[in-house]
Amino acid sequence: MASRPMADTAARILDVAERLVQVQGFNAFSYADVAAEVQIRKASLHHHFPTKAALGQALIARYRARFSRALAEIHVGTSDARARLKAYARLYTGVLRKRRMCLCGVLAADFETLPGPMRQGVLAFFSDNEAWLAGVLEEGRRGKTLQFQGPASTLAAFVVSSLEGAMLVARSYGRVERFEAVVKKLLGDLQR
Amino acid sequence: MASRPMADTAARILDVAERLVQVQGFNAFSYADVAAEVQIRKASLHHHFPTKAALGQALIARYRARFSRALAEIHVGTSDARARLKAYARLYTGVLRKRRMCLCGVLAADFETLPGPMRQGVLAFFSDNEAWLAGVLEEGRRGKTLQFQGPASTLAAFVVSSLEGAMLVARSYGRVERFEAVVKKLLGDLQR
DNA sequence: GTCTATAACGAGATAGAC
DNA sequence: GTCTATCTCGTTATAGAC
Fold first, then answer.
1. Which of A42, A56, B30, B124 is the most buried (most CB within 10 A)?
2. What's the structural domain count of chain B?
3. Range of the domain at A100
4. Which of residues 1-30 of A touch B (CB under 8 A)?
5. pLDDT of residue B92
6. Footprint of strand C, using CB within 7 A?
7. At what angle do helices A176-188 and A152-173 cross, to 10 degrees?
8. Half-sphere exposure of B154 (CA within 13 A, CB side)
9. What is the CATH number of the domain that holds A67?
């Protein structure tokens, strides 16, 4: 097939909208903002995503899929649990360096105003992450590279919410180091 | 002087607006929402708080002051560091039980869209909390009721962001127990 | 698929009477 | 201090031409 000088329009819309949501929140960005950046009219946006709720759902679905791929890649690129946890934390650091919040973390703040399908997607994102983390944690405990007590799933929930909170606060201060200190503490407590 | 029934109109406005922000976020609530609940016209709201930014600043100022009083009361009502930390966590649990997010936690999600004075207030809230916590943590370490390594201020920052994140995620799931599990883990790790 | 044009509504905010 | 009335602007969304 011939090369397409135009990147897929829907994908460009999602790229811009994703950043706007991560920076401003779901209720603070508008179709007009997206249209201006994508250099298209507002009406054309509605052709790709009929409603804001549909756009929101698409954003979450894509974010979850991308995160799942990243988690799978961690399993390929690393061999022990500690390295996997570090790589996991690096995913968050990368987002924060762009002065963005985790998409689903910021949507959690808007949670009560979201349509049902978006809510479900946000919770599914957290559950995805916790399931993956619980696997890595359990693996580390069995291999004696990590130490902790109680269910791995409980610890996984703790890690996810601590990282989300650390992103939230560190971004406000504009200090990525604040986030990195939290990561260090979390990892440190796992080898005691 | 005579009792002033007018004086508490401002307070009633703040009560309603505070709840709306905590539940919906700063950009999702409107003067119309507040007016309807307070049973007053929108125009009258502007008499008390000329702009939404001014209302936001007043919300933060009052929230900070109330929190400071609560922290001072913890010092009166408890005698050791562990009890103080538990009482501190209970402040958050009380908010979460009402299906609300911490006011400043939710404003942190909206941070990039906030006017300067509101941003400063949000950061000051976090700093207030961390300063208080650092004092309690250091006190506990000296009295051997708490164990941890490194600066108390770093640990205080960790605790604040973990609690904010735990509230954020637990509220989305509608599970206060999720938050309580995080509190238990944080406290448990401090006596090891 | 993108456009112009516009509908329909709600937002924050103001003027001025009472 | 509260009201009615209004302004101006931005919002999501739709109709229909090209």
1. A56
2. 1
3. 3-190
4. 23-25, 27-28
5. 98
6. A 6, 9, 39-44, 47-48; B 29-33, 42-43, 46, 50-53
7. 160
8. 14
9. 1.10.357.10
